[in-house]
Specification:
By secondary structure, the chain is α+β, with helices and mostly antiparallel strands. It is built from five helices and nine strands. The chain has helices spanning about 35-40, 55-70, 95-105, 110-120, 140-150; strands at about 1-10, 15, 25, 30, 40-45, 155, 170-175, 180-190, 195-200. Strands 1, 2, 3, 4, 5, 6, 7, 8 and 9 form a nine-stranded antiparallel beta sheet that branches. Strand 7 (about 170-175) and strand 8 form a beta hairpin. Helix 2 packs across helix 3 (about 95-105). The protein starts with a strand and ends with a strand.
Length: about 200
């Protein structure tokens, strides 16, 4: 289920808009809004104050997904190409990023597929694939990490949560054993811990 969590970075990758960081976080569940809002959190900056329209669009979509995406699923779907999507009420962590970027005019399904097709050897072979698959390639965190890095959108890793800005994309290792996860840094500021919350689906 979608959650917002404060950024507490030991960080693997941070990518801005266009942006990678491996991190540990404490979690605030978005399904329980009373628990989330009981924390001292403020909107900083306000969405209307963000000058970059693409970043505004990413944040608008990510926040909307906390209302519409009510379940988590890594299920394989056959989807259209380009602009294909799984049912909006479900999805994996990557779908939060894919949907957010689409709102900003970037179809990661198409972008990742085209780069993988032209540079297949550069992408992970974790799944034993011998060719691209437009249904799933963009829905895998290691592929997104490679894509953003190849497009020179990877940021330096920082131990300070406040160094990560609204609209940045952050990925991390959930259990220290290579189980990757990804989310979008929101514009909701945790005043107690001095860092932004992350919108993600887990």
């Amino acid at each position: 289920m979608l959650q917002k969590k404060p950024v507490q970075l030991f960080a693997i990758f941070v990518f801005s808009f266009f942006i990678a960081c491996q991190s540990n976080f404490s979690t605030i569940a978005q399904t329980d809004r009373s628990a989330s809002l009981a924390k001292p959190v403020m909107e900083k900056p306000k969405l209307s104050e963000i000058k970059t329209p693409e970043v505004r669009s990413i944040l608008k979509s990510a926040n909307l997904q906390t209302e519409t995406t009510t379940s988590y699923s890594q299920k394989y779907y056959s989807i259209t190409y380009p602009m294909g999507d799984v049912p909006e009420n479900t999805g994996a962590c990557t779908d939060v990023v894919v949907r957010s970027y689409r709102e900003a005019g970037i179809d990661l399904q198409k972008e990742v597929h085209e780069d993988m097709k032209a540079n297949f050897s550069k992408y992970p072979k974790i799944w034993g694939l011998s060719r691209t698959d437009t249904n799933i390639d963009h829905r895998r965190v290691p592929n997104l990490q490679v894509y953003f890095t190849r497009k020179n959108r990877s940021l330096a890793i920082s131990q300070k949560g406040s160094d990560y800005k609204p609209g940045d994309v952050v990925s991390w290792d959930l259990n220290g054993n290579g189980l990757t996860h990804i989310g979008v840094i929101s514009n909701m500021w945790d005043t107690e811990n001095q860092r932004y919350l992350i919108i993600h689906n887990i």
